[in-house]
Specification:
The protein is of the alpha/beta class. The protein contains 15 helices and 24 strands. The strands form four sheets. The chain has an eleven-stranded mixed β-sheet with strand order 9-8-7-10-6-11-12-13-14-15-16, with helices on both faces. The chain has a six-stranded mixed β-sheet with strand order 17-18-22-19-20-21, with helices on both faces. Strand 8 and strand 9 form a beta hairpin. Helix 3 packs parallel to helix 5, helix 4 packs across helix 9 and helix 12 packs across helix 13. The termini are far apart.
Length: 507
């Protein structure tokens, strides 16, 4: 499509402040980007971001971009077309949908969006496992996923950086999935993606609301809980069927907002739930539970501990129920699924140490995790390794410090994406809340050393919780994303050292 067509699209959305196409009206737009490193001839460059520099625009134009879109006008060295807009965040999805031809969603690609304070990733993989099994039974292609862990769209498979991609990437993945003949795409939808319009122009067949608790409260994210909550609820504006958890906090407000969708399906433990979770039982290798609805009354099994994972699995079952997946396929898929970095369990050879690696990183996930550990490891000591990210979710520092301190014998504070904030400042904000509970608190800046030290200093039968990073293979340090071993890798290395130092004596 040509440059003038994008201008007209933005005019129809009442986004244009002023423009000068500089004789480039008929120039075809060959690509759209906001990263100057990806700029190329015929590209349309989007000026966005708190750290945006005019140098990025100059670089993009020098590489051949014929036009730029911005909220601010620039006196550039390279002559170009330009369009000034009211809100660059609202403009990006419009451009993306136009460029990738996703304005009208294909009926052949069913989109599921999952939001909530806790459980988005696990639920995404439970649902993907079910849908993959369903598609395999029909000789169809593997389904797509956009998650905190990875991206797969039929063309690209790679680790993810954001929970929900920016609009340009999101619409590219949707286009790729359509071109690959994929029938289902499951994705996590973060509060930031909702607040900053990343998912605008996307219509979901199913929107799952898992739960809500205070999180992501900071000047850079949400000013208060109400802003966070309303951002989450706004998902229902873009949903055909709302799938909501009746056991979540603020259930009445969630149900009220869900009426923005065309249809509502509920799940949870309450008797009135359309898809009801019942009789959760702990087994040696996971959980068994019963799910009842108007289509079936079946026993399910998952190979992961934690009652909250039965709740996540029920959310996935409810979505699969909406899609008409047979119960037998759901049962088969869930029995075999594992989620990397979620409730991964490791043991030392002498069985004295059990290590649980989990992505838990906010109050709700900490509460549910510690409750599960107390039930399943009664009488054992608990040692916890965790940290908090820099310049965001400041409320976590108090909440996680108090929860970890209350239930642990020792807490090791360490790096978890400190970014540009001094890690000593993060430690100073968390430590008093750990220590006020009477728990010992040790600060170790390097995450690898923190895990190794925690394992080395364990005495007696102990559960070691390594929380926050899960299977993320990077750390945000300064302004860079630096490759770093995953928590699972760190735990395996630390236990290898422990097993070498404490060999099992042969009888």
């Amino acid at each position: 499509m040509k440059l003038w067509e994008y201008l007209e699209e933005l005019k129809r959305a009442d986004m244009v402040v002023s423009y000068d196409l500089n004789g480039q009206e008929e120039t075809p737009v060959t690509s759209i980007m906001y990263d100057s490193r990806e700029a190329k001839k015929g590209g349309l460059f989007v000026c966005k971001g708190a750290n945006f520099s005019e140098e990025y625009l100059e670089s993009a134009l020098k590489k051949g971009c014929s036009a730029y879109i911005s909220e601010i006008g620039y006196q550039t060295k390279e002559k170009s077309a330009w369009i000034l807009v009211k809100d660059i965040r609202r403009v990006m999805p419009i451009l993306a949908a136009k460029f990738y031809g996703t304005c009208n969603k294909s009926k052949d690609l069913h989109l599921t969006g999952i939001t909530g304070t806790k459980g988005k990733t696990t639920t995404s993989y439970y649902l993907k496992a079910i849908l993959d099994c369903f598609e395999e039974s029909r000789n169809h292609a593997e389904t797509a996923i956009l998650s905190t862990i990875e991206i797969y769209d039929g063309k690209e498979r790679k680790p993810s950086v954001l929970t929900t991609p920016e609009a340009l990437e999101l619409h590219r993945h949707i286009r790729n999935a359509q071109d690959a003949g994929i029938s289902y795409l499951t994705m996590e939808v973060s509060s930031q993606a909702l607040k900053y319009q990343r998912i605008r122009k996307v219509q979901y067949d199913v929107g799952i609301f898992l739960n809500i608790s205070e999180d992501h409260i900071s000047p850079a994210e949400h000013g208060d809980f109400e802003d966070y909550f309303m951002s989450k609820l706004s998902l229902f504006k873009q949903v055909d069927t709302a799938c909501i958890n009746l056991d979540c906090d603020y259930e009445k407000r969630v149900c009220q907002a869900a009426h923005l969708a065309k249809r509502i399906v509920t799940f949870g433990k309450k008797e009135e739930a359309d898809v009801r979770l019942m009789s959760v039982r702990h087994c040696g290798d996971g959980l068994s539970f019963r799910v009842k609805c108007d289509q079936f009354d079946e026993e399910f099994h998952i190979g992961m501990q934690g009652d909250f994972n039965a709740e996540n699995a029920t959310a996935a079952i409810a979505a699969a129920y909406i899609y008409g997946v047979p119960a037998e396929i759901m049962k088969k898929a869930l029995a075999n699924v594992k989620v990397s970095g979620r409730m991964e369990e490791y043991k030392s050879n002498d069985k004295k140490i059990t290590v649980i690696v989990d992505y838990a990183h906010n109050r709700l996930s900490f509460e549910k995790l510690f409750d599960s550990v107390f039930q399943e490891h009664s009488g054992e000591r608990i040692v916890t390794v965790f940290g908090c990210p820099g310049q965001k979710a400041y409320n976590r520092r108090r909440e996680l410090g108090m929860i970890a301190g209350l239930f642990s014998h020792t807490v090791y504070l360490t790096a978890d994406d400190p970014g540009t904030e001094p890690i000593e400042k993060i430690f100073d904000d968390i430590r008093p809340h750990v220590e006020t509970t009477g728990c010992a608190c040790i600060c170790v800046e390097d995450r690898k050393e923190a895990v190794f030290q925690a394992v080395r200093e364990i005495k007696g039968k102990t559960v070691l919780l390594v929380l926050g990073k899960g299977n993320e293979g990077h750390q945000k340090i300064g302004t860079e994303i630096v490759p770093y071993p995953t928590d699972s890798e760190l735990v395996r290395m630390a236990l290898e050292e422990y097993n070498h130092i404490h060999p099992i004596k042969k009888k």
